[in-house]
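Thread: "does anyone have the structure for this chain?"

Original post by V.I.:
We have the sequence but no experimental structure in hand. Need at least a predicted one for the grant figures.
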Amino acid sequence: MNEVRIDLAHAVALGSIDDEDHHAVRELLDNEDPALRAAFLAEVRQTKDALSALAEIASTQPPVALRDRLLAAIADEQP
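Reply from O.Q.:
Generated one for you, tokens below.
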């Protein structure tokens, strides 16, 4: 798979494709040979897995006081 298709797979995994890229993905999945289609889908899956692992590692609990401040702000906005 070439670099352009790898970049396209990463964009799909991020959910950041535009109409032109969407057309390219559709064309790739509909018209290419099965091995290339499988490689593309594997790249998307691997990228999603890597992003998920990164999000899990980088996640932190919000400060305890944040919940109270948010609930108070919401209550202030209620009619």
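V.I.: this helps a lot. The chain has a mean pLDDT of 91.
O.Q.: and The helical segments are 3-14, 19-31, 34-58, 64-77.
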